[in-house]
Amino acid sequence: MVSHNKRLVAALAAVAAMGMGLAGCGSDTAGTDNGGSSDGGKVTITYMHRLPDSEGMTLVKDIVAKWNKEHPDIQVTATKFDGKASEMIKKLETDVKSGEAPDLAQVGYAELPEVFTKGMLQDVSQYADQYKDHYAAGPFSLAQVGGKTYGLPQDTGPLVYFYNKAEFDKLGITEVPKTESEFIEAAKKAAAAGKYIMSYQPDEAGNMISGLAGASGGWYKVDGDSWVVNTETDGSKATADFYQQLLDAKAVTTNPRWDPSFDASIKNGQLIGTVAAAWEAPLFITSSGGTGAGEWQVTQLGDWFGNAGKTGPDGGSAVAVLKSSKHPKEAMEFLDWFNTQVPDLVSQGLVPAATTEDAKTPSDWSDFFSKQDIMKEFKDANNNMGDFTYMPGFSAVVAKMNETAAKASDGSGKVADVFSEAQTTSVDTLKNLGLSVKE
Protein backbone atom coordinates (compact mmCIF):
# COMPACT_ATOMS: atom_id res chain seq x y z
CA MET A 1 0.00 0.00 0.00
CA VAL A 2 1.91 3.00 -1.24
CA SER A 3 -0.24 5.51 0.61
CA HIS A 4 0.22 3.71 3.93
CA ASN A 5 3.95 3.56 3.37
CA LYS A 6 3.94 7.35 2.97
CA ARG A 7 2.69 7.62 6.49
CA LEU A 8 5.17 5.07 7.77
CA VAL A 9 8.09 6.94 6.25
CA ALA A 10 6.90 10.39 7.23
CA ALA A 11 5.47 9.70 10.65
CA LEU A 12 7.82 6.88 11.58
CA ALA A 13 4.84 5.44 13.48
CA ALA A 14 2.83 6.98 16.24
CA VAL A 15 3.02 8.12 19.75
CA ALA A 16 4.02 7.30 23.21
CA ALA A 17 5.45 5.38 26.13
CA MET A 18 4.04 4.44 29.51
CA GLY A 19 4.58 3.71 33.18
CA MET A 20 5.10 0.00 33.59
CA GLY A 21 5.90 -2.35 36.45
CA LEU A 22 6.16 -5.76 34.85
CA ALA A 23 8.35 -8.33 36.53
CA GLY A 24 10.76 -10.10 34.24
CA CYS A 25 10.34 -7.66 31.35
CA GLY A 26 12.86 -5.32 29.79
CA SER A 27 16.49 -4.85 30.73
CA ASP A 28 17.91 -2.51 33.33
CA THR A 29 21.58 -3.45 33.02
CA ALA A 30 24.22 -2.73 30.43
CA GLY A 31 25.16 -5.55 28.10
CA THR A 32 28.53 -7.14 28.70
CA ASP A 33 28.93 -9.77 26.01
CA ASN A 34 27.57 -8.32 22.78
CA GLY A 35 27.08 -5.09 20.82
CA GLY A 36 29.62 -2.44 19.84
CA SER A 37 33.33 -3.15 19.60
CA SER A 38 36.52 -1.37 20.57
CA ASP A 39 40.02 -1.39 19.09
CA GLY A 40 42.88 -0.04 21.17
CA GLY A 41 40.67 2.51 22.89
CA LYS A 42 38.58 3.30 19.82
CA VAL A 43 34.91 2.51 20.30
CA THR A 44 32.71 1.52 17.36
CA ILE A 45 28.99 2.28 17.57
CA THR A 46 26.38 0.97 15.13
CA TYR A 47 23.08 2.73 14.40
CA MET A 48 20.10 1.41 12.42
CA HIS A 49 17.52 3.91 11.16
CA ARG A 50 14.56 4.32 8.82
CA LEU A 51 14.97 7.99 7.88
CA PRO A 52 13.94 8.81 4.30
CA ASP A 53 17.45 9.72 3.03
CA SER A 54 15.95 11.05 -0.19
CA GLU A 55 17.42 13.33 -2.85
CA GLY A 56 17.95 16.88 -1.64
CA MET A 57 18.22 15.85 2.02
CA THR A 58 21.33 15.86 4.17
CA LEU A 59 22.02 12.13 4.15
CA VAL A 60 22.51 10.25 7.40
CA LYS A 61 25.91 8.98 6.25
CA ASP A 62 27.05 12.56 5.74
CA ILE A 63 25.79 13.64 9.16
CA VAL A 64 27.60 10.69 10.74
CA ALA A 65 30.76 11.50 8.76
CA LYS A 66 30.91 14.88 10.52
CA TRP A 67 30.80 13.14 13.89
CA ASN A 68 33.46 10.61 12.92
CA LYS A 69 35.80 13.34 11.75
CA GLU A 70 35.49 15.19 15.05
CA HIS A 71 35.50 12.11 17.32
CA PRO A 72 38.26 9.71 16.29
CA ASP A 73 37.83 7.65 19.49
CA ILE A 74 34.09 7.01 18.93
CA GLN A 75 33.42 5.91 15.39
CA VAL A 76 29.85 5.36 14.18
CA THR A 77 28.50 3.22 11.35
CA ALA A 78 24.91 3.94 10.26
CA THR A 79 22.71 1.48 8.38
CA LYS A 80 19.38 2.28 6.74
CA PHE A 81 16.61 -0.31 7.03
CA ASP A 82 14.37 -0.09 3.97
CA GLY A 83 11.44 -2.19 5.19
CA LYS A 84 8.45 -1.34 7.36
CA ALA A 85 8.84 -0.46 11.02
CA SER A 86 7.29 -3.77 12.07
CA GLU A 87 9.80 -5.68 9.93
CA MET A 88 12.69 -3.77 11.46
CA ILE A 89 11.45 -4.60 14.97
CA LYS A 90 11.32 -8.31 14.09
CA LYS A 91 14.88 -8.17 12.77
CA LEU A 92 16.11 -6.35 15.87
CA GLU A 93 14.44 -8.91 18.13
CA THR A 94 16.27 -11.71 16.34
CA ASP A 95 19.55 -9.82 16.34
CA VAL A 96 19.37 -9.01 20.05
CA LYS A 97 18.96 -12.71 20.82
CA SER A 98 21.90 -13.62 18.61
CA GLY A 99 24.11 -10.81 19.87
CA GLU A 100 24.31 -9.16 16.44
CA ALA A 101 22.08 -6.15 17.11
CA PRO A 102 23.25 -2.56 16.61
CA ASP A 103 23.95 -0.34 19.61
CA LEU A 104 21.28 2.13 18.56
CA ALA A 105 18.02 1.72 16.67
CA GLN A 106 15.19 4.00 15.67
CA VAL A 107 11.99 2.96 17.45
CA GLY A 108 8.59 4.60 17.01
CA TYR A 109 7.08 5.89 20.24
CA ALA A 110 4.14 3.49 19.87
CA GLU A 111 6.56 0.59 19.44
CA LEU A 112 8.74 1.38 22.45
CA PRO A 113 6.48 -0.30 25.05
CA GLU A 114 6.38 -3.54 23.07
CA VAL A 115 10.13 -3.52 22.41
CA PHE A 116 10.71 -2.95 26.12
CA THR A 117 8.36 -5.77 27.07
CA LYS A 118 10.35 -8.11 24.83
CA GLY A 119 13.50 -7.30 26.81
CA MET A 120 15.31 -5.60 23.94
CA LEU A 121 16.23 -2.29 25.58
CA GLN A 122 18.91 -1.09 27.98
CA ASP A 123 18.29 1.34 30.84
CA VAL A 124 20.48 4.37 30.13
CA SER A 125 18.98 6.75 32.69
CA GLN A 126 22.39 7.46 34.23
CA TYR A 127 23.62 8.85 30.92
CA ALA A 128 20.36 10.43 29.71
CA ASP A 129 19.81 12.82 32.61
CA GLN A 130 22.59 15.15 31.44
CA TYR A 131 20.87 15.52 28.06
CA LYS A 132 17.30 16.01 29.35
CA ASP A 133 17.35 19.79 28.92
CA HIS A 134 18.19 19.40 25.23
CA TYR A 135 14.63 18.21 24.44
CA ALA A 136 11.02 19.22 24.94
CA ALA A 137 9.62 17.51 28.05
CA GLY A 138 6.83 15.66 26.23
CA PRO A 139 9.04 13.96 23.64
CA PHE A 140 11.70 13.17 26.25
CA SER A 141 9.12 11.30 28.32
CA LEU A 142 8.19 9.23 25.26
CA ALA A 143 11.64 7.61 25.41
CA GLN A 144 10.94 6.44 28.93
CA VAL A 145 9.20 3.43 30.44
CA GLY A 146 8.25 3.38 34.09
CA GLY A 147 10.38 6.45 34.81
CA LYS A 148 13.53 4.91 33.31
CA THR A 149 15.07 6.18 30.09
CA TYR A 150 15.96 3.90 27.18
CA GLY A 151 17.16 6.39 24.57
CA LEU A 152 16.51 9.94 23.38
CA PRO A 153 13.68 11.47 21.33
CA GLN A 154 14.47 12.26 17.72
CA ASP A 155 11.35 13.69 16.12
CA THR A 156 7.78 14.34 17.09
CA GLY A 157 4.30 14.86 15.67
CA PRO A 158 2.12 17.15 17.78
CA LEU A 159 -1.35 17.68 16.36
CA VAL A 160 -2.10 21.16 15.04
CA TYR A 161 -4.67 22.78 12.76
CA PHE A 162 -4.08 23.62 9.08
CA TYR A 163 -6.52 26.10 7.53
CA ASN A 164 -6.93 28.29 4.47
CA LYS A 165 -7.26 31.78 5.91
CA ALA A 166 -8.31 33.36 2.62
CA GLU A 167 -11.23 30.92 2.32
CA PHE A 168 -12.16 31.48 5.98
CA ASP A 169 -12.26 35.23 5.33
CA LYS A 170 -14.55 34.75 2.32
CA LEU A 171 -16.98 32.84 4.53
CA GLY A 172 -16.88 35.56 7.17
CA ILE A 173 -15.09 33.30 9.66
CA THR A 174 -12.62 35.90 10.86
CA GLU A 175 -10.69 33.62 13.19
CA VAL A 176 -10.36 29.94 13.98
CA PRO A 177 -13.10 29.09 16.52
CA LYS A 178 -11.82 28.50 20.04
CA THR A 179 -14.61 26.39 21.55
CA GLU A 180 -16.44 23.27 20.41
CA SER A 181 -19.79 25.04 19.99
CA GLU A 182 -18.22 27.87 18.01
CA PHE A 183 -16.45 25.39 15.77
CA ILE A 184 -19.60 23.34 15.10
CA GLU A 185 -21.50 26.51 14.19
CA ALA A 186 -18.72 27.67 11.84
CA ALA A 187 -18.50 24.20 10.26
CA LYS A 188 -22.22 24.23 9.49
CA LYS A 189 -21.90 27.69 7.98
CA ALA A 190 -19.02 26.54 5.78
CA ALA A 191 -20.83 23.35 4.73
CA ALA A 192 -23.82 25.39 3.56
CA ALA A 193 -21.40 27.06 1.15
CA GLY A 194 -19.90 23.73 0.02
CA LYS A 195 -16.77 24.13 2.15
CA TYR A 196 -15.45 22.03 5.02
CA ILE A 197 -13.28 23.24 7.89
CA MET A 198 -12.65 19.78 9.33
CA SER A 199 -11.96 16.28 8.05
CA TYR A 200 -12.88 12.95 9.63
CA GLN A 201 -10.22 10.48 8.53
CA PRO A 202 -11.25 6.86 9.27
CA ASP A 203 -7.87 5.46 8.26
CA GLU A 204 -6.13 7.72 10.80
CA ALA A 205 -8.48 7.14 13.73
CA GLY A 206 -6.08 4.96 15.68
CA ASN A 207 -3.32 7.53 15.41
CA MET A 208 -5.03 10.92 15.19
CA ILE A 209 -8.23 10.44 17.17
CA SER A 210 -6.36 8.67 19.95
CA GLY A 211 -4.01 11.66 20.12
CA LEU A 212 -6.91 14.11 20.23
CA ALA A 213 -8.70 12.13 22.92
CA GLY A 214 -5.47 11.61 24.83
CA ALA A 215 -4.63 15.31 24.94
CA SER A 216 -6.69 15.48 28.13
CA GLY A 217 -5.46 12.23 29.68
CA GLY A 218 -3.85 8.87 28.94
CA TRP A 219 -5.57 5.53 28.48
CA TYR A 220 -3.13 3.09 30.02
CA LYS A 221 -1.38 2.77 33.35
CA VAL A 222 0.07 0.03 35.51
CA ASP A 223 -1.11 -0.74 39.02
CA GLY A 224 1.39 -3.08 40.63
CA ASP A 225 2.03 -5.75 38.01
CA SER A 226 -1.32 -5.29 36.25
CA TRP A 227 -2.45 -3.03 33.45
CA VAL A 228 -5.39 -0.69 33.93
CA VAL A 229 -7.16 0.22 30.69
CA ASN A 230 -9.59 3.09 30.13
CA THR A 231 -10.00 4.26 26.54
CA GLU A 232 -13.42 5.80 27.25
CA THR A 233 -12.20 8.84 29.16
CA ASP A 234 -13.87 12.23 29.29
CA GLY A 235 -11.53 13.31 26.50
CA SER A 236 -12.59 10.34 24.39
CA LYS A 237 -16.25 11.13 24.96
CA ALA A 238 -15.72 14.79 24.04
CA THR A 239 -13.84 13.81 20.87
CA ALA A 240 -16.59 11.36 19.89
CA ASP A 241 -19.27 13.98 20.49
CA PHE A 242 -17.41 16.60 18.44
CA TYR A 243 -17.03 14.39 15.38
CA GLN A 244 -20.49 12.85 15.70
CA GLN A 245 -22.09 16.30 15.61
CA LEU A 246 -20.12 17.16 12.48
CA LEU A 247 -21.01 13.85 10.81
CA ASP A 248 -24.71 14.17 11.67
CA ALA A 249 -24.74 17.71 10.26
CA LYS A 250 -22.81 16.58 7.15
CA ALA A 251 -20.37 19.34 7.98
CA VAL A 252 -17.15 17.33 7.69
CA THR A 253 -15.39 15.42 4.91
CA THR A 254 -14.98 11.66 5.35
CA ASN A 255 -12.31 10.91 2.78
CA PRO A 256 -9.56 8.63 4.14
CA ARG A 257 -6.31 10.57 4.53
CA TRP A 258 -4.24 8.27 2.31
CA ASP A 259 -6.83 7.95 -0.44
CA PRO A 260 -6.70 10.09 -3.60
CA SER A 261 -10.12 11.46 -2.65
CA PHE A 262 -8.54 13.35 0.24
CA ASP A 263 -6.08 15.07 -2.08
CA ALA A 264 -8.95 15.83 -4.45
CA SER A 265 -10.92 17.53 -1.67
CA ILE A 266 -8.08 20.02 -1.20
CA LYS A 267 -7.42 20.53 -4.90
CA ASN A 268 -11.08 21.26 -5.67
CA GLY A 269 -11.27 23.76 -2.82
CA GLN A 270 -13.73 21.82 -0.66
CA LEU A 271 -11.49 21.08 2.32
CA ILE A 272 -10.21 24.31 3.83
CA GLY A 273 -9.32 23.17 7.34
CA THR A 274 -8.13 20.01 9.08
CA VAL A 275 -6.29 18.66 12.09
CA ALA A 276 -2.88 17.33 11.06
CA ALA A 277 0.33 16.09 12.62
CA ALA A 278 3.30 18.43 12.34
CA TRP A 279 5.20 15.96 10.15
CA GLU A 280 2.36 16.17 7.65
CA ALA A 281 3.30 19.65 6.42
CA PRO A 282 5.34 18.60 3.35
CA LEU A 283 2.89 15.79 2.53
CA PHE A 284 -0.03 18.20 2.78
CA ILE A 285 1.67 20.57 0.36
CA THR A 286 2.02 17.66 -2.07
CA SER A 287 -1.59 16.61 -1.51
CA SER A 288 -2.79 20.13 -2.31
CA GLY A 289 -1.18 20.19 -5.72
CA GLY A 290 -0.51 23.87 -5.02
CA THR A 291 -4.15 24.77 -4.38
CA GLY A 292 -4.29 27.66 -1.92
CA ALA A 293 -0.52 28.12 -1.87
CA GLY A 294 0.27 31.22 0.17
CA GLU A 295 -3.16 31.15 1.83
CA TRP A 296 -2.84 28.27 4.29
CA GLN A 297 -1.74 28.79 7.89
CA VAL A 298 -1.01 26.69 10.97
CA THR A 299 -2.41 27.29 14.44
CA GLN A 300 -2.84 25.47 17.74
CA LEU A 301 -5.89 23.33 18.44
CA GLY A 302 -8.82 25.04 20.09
CA ASP A 303 -10.63 23.50 23.04
CA TRP A 304 -12.69 21.29 20.75
CA PHE A 305 -12.08 17.86 22.29
CA GLY A 306 -12.32 18.57 26.01
CA ASN A 307 -8.59 19.14 25.82
CA ALA A 308 -8.37 22.49 27.64
CA GLY A 309 -6.11 23.83 24.90
CA LYS A 310 -3.69 20.90 25.06
CA THR A 311 -2.64 18.85 22.07
CA GLY A 312 -1.73 15.20 21.66
CA PRO A 313 0.93 13.25 19.78
CA ASP A 314 0.62 11.58 16.41
CA GLY A 315 3.86 10.07 15.17
CA GLY A 316 7.52 10.47 15.84
CA SER A 317 10.27 8.24 17.11
CA ALA A 318 13.06 7.83 19.59
CA VAL A 319 16.44 6.24 19.10
CA ALA A 320 16.89 3.53 21.73
CA VAL A 321 19.96 1.81 23.13
CA LEU A 322 19.58 -1.92 22.65
CA LYS A 323 20.21 -4.44 25.41
CA SER A 324 23.33 -5.89 23.77
CA SER A 325 25.28 -2.63 23.49
CA LYS A 326 28.63 -2.77 25.32
CA HIS A 327 29.13 0.99 25.06
CA PRO A 328 25.93 2.73 26.23
CA LYS A 329 27.75 5.83 27.47
CA GLU A 330 29.45 6.45 24.11
CA ALA A 331 26.27 5.52 22.23
CA MET A 332 24.33 8.14 24.18
CA GLU A 333 27.04 10.75 23.61
CA PHE A 334 26.76 10.25 19.86
CA LEU A 335 22.97 10.01 19.98
CA ASP A 336 22.54 13.34 21.73
CA TRP A 337 24.84 14.95 19.18
CA PHE A 338 22.97 13.37 16.26
CA ASN A 339 19.49 14.23 17.56
CA THR A 340 20.50 17.86 18.06
CA GLN A 341 21.67 18.32 14.45
CA VAL A 342 18.46 20.24 13.91
CA PRO A 343 18.96 21.63 10.36
CA ASP A 344 20.04 18.22 9.07
CA LEU A 345 17.03 16.48 10.61
CA VAL A 346 14.69 19.14 9.23
CA SER A 347 16.13 18.40 5.78
CA GLN A 348 14.92 14.82 6.31
CA GLY A 349 11.38 16.16 6.74
CA LEU A 350 11.39 15.75 10.51
CA VAL A 351 10.12 17.99 13.28
CA PRO A 352 13.03 17.59 15.71
CA ALA A 353 12.36 17.01 19.38
CA ALA A 354 15.53 18.91 20.30
CA THR A 355 15.28 22.42 21.72
CA THR A 356 18.98 23.26 21.42
CA GLU A 357 18.33 25.53 18.45
CA ASP A 358 15.26 26.77 16.66
CA ALA A 359 14.33 24.74 13.62
CA LYS A 360 14.10 26.93 10.53
CA THR A 361 10.99 26.60 8.41
CA PRO A 362 12.03 25.33 4.94
CA SER A 363 11.39 27.93 2.23
CA ASP A 364 8.89 25.80 0.30
CA TRP A 365 6.90 25.22 3.47
CA SER A 366 6.97 28.95 4.19
CA ASP A 367 5.80 29.79 0.67
CA PHE A 368 2.77 27.52 1.04
CA PHE A 369 1.89 28.54 4.58
CA SER A 370 1.64 32.32 4.09
CA LYS A 371 5.33 32.98 4.90
CA GLN A 372 4.52 31.80 8.42
CA ASP A 373 7.19 30.36 10.70
CA ILE A 374 5.32 27.09 11.12
CA MET A 375 8.25 25.45 12.89
CA LYS A 376 7.58 27.86 15.76
CA GLU A 377 3.96 26.66 15.85
CA PHE A 378 5.18 23.07 15.95
CA LYS A 379 7.58 23.92 18.78
CA ASP A 380 4.77 25.56 20.73
CA ALA A 381 2.63 22.48 20.17
CA ASN A 382 5.45 20.25 21.36
CA ASN A 383 5.62 22.22 24.58
CA ASN A 384 1.84 22.00 25.00
CA MET A 385 1.49 18.24 24.59
CA GLY A 386 -0.66 16.34 27.06
CA ASP A 387 0.49 13.14 28.73
CA PHE A 388 -0.70 10.24 26.62
CA THR A 389 0.47 6.72 27.35
CA TYR A 390 0.34 3.62 25.16
CA MET A 391 0.58 -0.13 25.68
CA PRO A 392 2.44 -3.05 24.13
CA GLY A 393 0.63 -4.29 21.03
CA PHE A 394 -1.03 -0.94 20.36
CA SER A 395 -0.93 -1.62 16.61
CA ALA A 396 -3.83 -4.05 17.08
CA VAL A 397 -5.83 -1.30 18.77
CA VAL A 398 -5.07 1.08 15.89
CA ALA A 399 -6.33 -1.44 13.34
CA LYS A 400 -9.60 -1.96 15.23
CA MET A 401 -10.14 1.77 15.71
CA ASN A 402 -9.66 2.40 11.99
CA GLU A 403 -12.09 -0.35 11.08
CA THR A 404 -14.73 0.97 13.49
CA ALA A 405 -14.19 4.58 12.42
CA ALA A 406 -15.03 3.63 8.83
CA LYS A 407 -18.45 2.41 9.98
CA ALA A 408 -19.13 5.74 11.68
CA SER A 409 -18.27 7.59 8.47
CA ASP A 410 -20.86 5.68 6.42
CA GLY A 411 -23.55 5.87 9.10
CA SER A 412 -23.49 2.20 10.08
CA GLY A 413 -21.91 3.01 13.43
CA LYS A 414 -21.13 5.82 15.85
CA VAL A 415 -17.85 7.55 16.68
CA ALA A 416 -18.25 6.48 20.31
CA ASP A 417 -17.94 2.88 19.09
CA VAL A 418 -14.31 3.63 18.15
CA PHE A 419 -13.44 4.06 21.81
CA SER A 420 -15.51 1.16 23.14
CA GLU A 421 -13.88 -1.16 20.59
CA ALA A 422 -10.48 0.25 21.61
CA GLN A 423 -11.26 -0.77 25.19
CA THR A 424 -12.12 -4.36 24.31
CA THR A 425 -9.22 -4.74 21.89
CA SER A 426 -6.74 -3.27 24.38
CA VAL A 427 -7.70 -5.72 27.11
CA ASP A 428 -7.72 -8.70 24.74
CA THR A 429 -4.34 -7.74 23.26
CA LEU A 430 -2.67 -7.38 26.65
CA LYS A 431 -4.05 -10.77 27.77
CA ASN A 432 -2.87 -12.37 24.53
CA LEU A 433 0.61 -11.06 25.31
CA GLY A 434 0.42 -12.83 28.65
CA LEU A 435 0.13 -9.60 30.65
CA SER A 436 -2.12 -9.10 33.66
CA VAL A 437 -5.07 -6.75 33.29
CA LYS A 438 -7.03 -5.34 36.21
CA GLU A 439 -10.71 -5.19 35.30
Automatic annotation (TrEMBL):
Pfam families found in the cross-reference section: SBP_bac_1
PANTHER family in the record: ARABINOSE-BINDING PROTEIN-RELATED (PTHR43649), POLYGALACTURONAN_RHAMNOGALACTURONAN-BINDING PROTEIN YTCQ (PTHR43649:SF33)
Record carries keyword Acyltransferase: no
Swiss-Prot/TrEMBL keywords: Cell membrane, Lipoprotein, Membrane, Palmitate, Signal
Name used for this protein in its record: Extracellular solute-binding protein
Signal peptide as annotated in the record: 1-23
Gene3D superfamilies according to UniProt: Periplasmic binding protein-like II
Keyword Repeat attributed: no
